[in-house]
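Reviewers of the previous submission asked for a worked example of the structure-prediction workflow described in the proposal, so we include one complete record here. The input consisted solely of the amino acid sequence. No template or homolog information was supplied to the procedure at any stage.
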Amino acid sequence: FRLQDDKFSLISNTQGKQINAIHSAEKIFLATQNGELLEVQNDSAKVIAGLDIPLTSIVVKDEQTYFGSEGRGLFELKNGEAKEIKVSFRPYFINDLALANDGSIWLASRVKSADSGLFGYFPNADFGRFGNQTGTINSVEFDEKDNLWLGTKDSGVFSFRGGNESAHYTFENTSGGLRSNQIFDVFVDREGVIWF
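From that input alone, the workflow returned the following structure tokens.
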């Protein structure tokens, strides 16, 4: 649905579809649980890519669209086709994506608790893994100072700058200020306030 002028309107061709991610800029894209990448035009959604796995996240860099999946990693939309980015070292279960000012794409992924779920993808290069023992990361978001904020499954909140950990907040080290170590989402508002 779209809420505009206090009125809800149905986006056609989305009935019965679970929308996992929305990207809104010049173009509006929706990622679905049943593997469809949709582009919204007016009040209608058109399938522009279809896969056999759930899609979780979307970022757009210039005219390039990237999307994450549960089970097959990162994809890019190239010439109207979904192309899996296949390299030997990559995450397969992606929960969220964030685009850095330098064009790199940062991935929140599902991993074992002793591993780091933060990956960076550098187009025309490769993937890199960053951090130590973050565990599964649910959400990634950049602030206006290029700090990358991570919300984790059970390790609290991390902040990274230039690929290096700069802060780690937990229920325990904030004296309960952080209400839980399970963070579902991170949001940076237009005033630069970080919400968990």
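The chain has a mean pLDDT of 92. We consider this example representative of the routine output the project will generate in years two and three.
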